[in-house]
Amino acid sequence: MTAELVIFFLLAGLAVAGALNLILQRHPIHSALSLVVVMMALAGLYLLQGAEFIAAVQIIVYAGAIMVLFIFVIMLLNAGEEERTNLSRMARWVGLPLGIFLLLQLVYWIGRAPEAPATVAASPAQTRKLAMMLFQEFVFPFELTSILILIAILGALVLAKKES
Amino acid sequence: MSELLAQHPILVVSLTKIIVLMFLLMTALAYLTWFERKVVAHIQSRWGPYRAGPHGLLQPLADGLKFLFKEDVTPGGADRFIYFLAPFLSMSLALTSIALIPFGPKDITVFGQRTGLAVADLNIGLLFLFAITSLGVYGVALAGWSSNSKYPLLGGLRSSAQMVSYELSLTMSVVGVLLLAGSFNLREIIAAQSGFVRGILPRWNIIASPMPQLLGFLCFFTAAIAETNRLPFDLPEAESELVAGFHTEYASFKFAMFFLGEYASMVTVSCLATILFFGGWLSPFPESPLFAWTRFLPTALLAAGGLWVILDGVRYETIFGRILLPLLGLALCALAYGVSRPGVVDFVQGPFWFLAKVFVFLFLYIWVRGTLPRFRYDQLMAVGWKLLLPVSMANVVLTSFAIVVGKR
């Protein structure tokens, strides 16, 4: 087993363990922190693939900004521990079969996936290529997404504004 | 040891560098607390620490011992795991970021391996630094929440809002530098600033053509002070309102870890300001015969320091004055002779200028702390969102235009 494979399994195991812990923990803050662990493990996996820029952005945006806001809101609302409940009828008869179906599909498609492409060595050229793709080839969808986000922000502002 | 070295040279060399850097950094941080107390004291017409050792020089040691031997209380109802995790996160993240700082241009030889004067030299060094900084908020926010107490909770809430707001301006303010350098690598950013305008004015980013990054620097430094929770932006621990803010319930070594974390991030930010805007290890003097004497500045400073330690130390009629301080002075003078040797003198230039600039920024930090009163919370948010962010964005636009126009 190469060192790369060992690191991959370590990070993948960490990600899966974090995700499981996210569901099993009863306190919202613990769940949120588990999600941070998942994000960090994913960033490590990106790094392993030679995508340094994506890895750094993953940490900055998800772990450093979005999850901080999650924790901020949980702290602000002072959310307490959740109570465990049994599965609702909807979850038992519709959710479970659909979940198992999705799992089987994932296993099937991953099993049929072609040989993984060789990892690329991390280099500044990778980041440059990404920038070129974003701002030349895919500039239209990129800008469209930003307008979409702007609309969402404006919507949130209008909703949050006090009625005068 | 030699077997391990033969098999994993990079591992052994990196570990050695990490240990040496940790040792140096811990000493520097301890004396940074002494320096801060002295400077603030003199700003306020006081003497500052004076009892433990000459000029209070042993005060950091005494403080460290006190931290170790104090009783460590965990508040009832605290979330124990997170309560212990928070100071650990705070300190380890702050220390990690220093691993990326390159201290000099020349390589050194460790165990027969040539290696740079930084623990890690990454292509995305700057982004990685920001990634670590952005995680720093967890230490403060979680400490506030897990203490199960009202003042820490308020401090934690404030800190998460403050750090998320200022992180934006912090990141935007360096985009201008990135555009000028065309790289995320810290070494390349410094290299892009070498050279002189008309043979005298250094081409550092702060005065670089085509677009001086003065606005960028002001935004960067203001946002950085807020990111490190220092006065006048230390709302998370505002002692007049929140007792001690997020670390009210922490005592003993866990409190010391927050303290170390805060000072380590001060050092990181000062290093970053030096690298991004003030040419890193580049000397402010051009390489001409007229300025050849500047190569011996480190020697002169060390020798002067050594002589002063001897002369000042003799006044104390204790074991310090009679034996320890003169010995320290002699050691400094010997070091001064050492760095003037041919070969060594070239190597010392980079780290000397780097550390000198970092020292200026550390002093600036303390100066600001000793001079300015704390912001109100609404003022803090207004400055972050309505002033710093638009200005740093304008800086990005202006720099981009200047570069495009300059290329024609």
Question: If you had to describe this structure to a student in words, what would you say it looks like?
Answer:
The complex is a heterodimer of chains A (164) and B (408). With 164 residues, chain A is mainly alpha-helical. Chain A folds into 2 domains: 1-82, NADH-ubiquinone/plastoquinone oxidoreductase chain 6, subunit NuoJ (Four Helix Bundle (Hemerythrin (Met), subunit A)); 123-164. Chain A has 6 helices and no strands. Helices cover 79% and strands 0% of the residues of chain A. The mean pLDDT of chain A is 84. By secondary structure, chain B is mainly alpha-helical. Chain B has one domain (2-44, 59-282, 341-407). In chain B, 66% of the residues lie in helices and 2% in strands. A two-stranded antiparallel sheet of chain B has the order 1-2. Chain B has a two-stranded antiparallel sheet with strand order 3-4. In chain B, β3 and β4 form a beta hairpin. Chain B starts with a helix and ends with a helix. The chains are: A mainly alpha (164), B mainly alpha (408).
Total of helices of chain A: 6
CATH class of the largest domain in chain A: Mainly Alpha
| C-alpha end-to-end distance of chain A | 66 Å
Quaternary class: heterodimer
In the residues of chain A, how many domains can be counted? Answer: 2
SSE ordering of chain B: HHHHEEHHHHEEHHHHHHH
Class from helix and strand fractions of chain B? mainly alpha
Helix content of chain A: over 70%
Instruction: Provide the β-strand percentage band of chain B.
Output: under 5%
The largest sheet of chain B is: 2 strands, antiparallel
Globally, the shape of chain B reads globular
From the structure above, extract its key features.
heterodimer, A: 164 residues, mainly alpha, Four Helix Bundle (Hemerythrin (Met), subunit A), 2 domains, B: mainly alpha, two-stranded antiparallel sheet
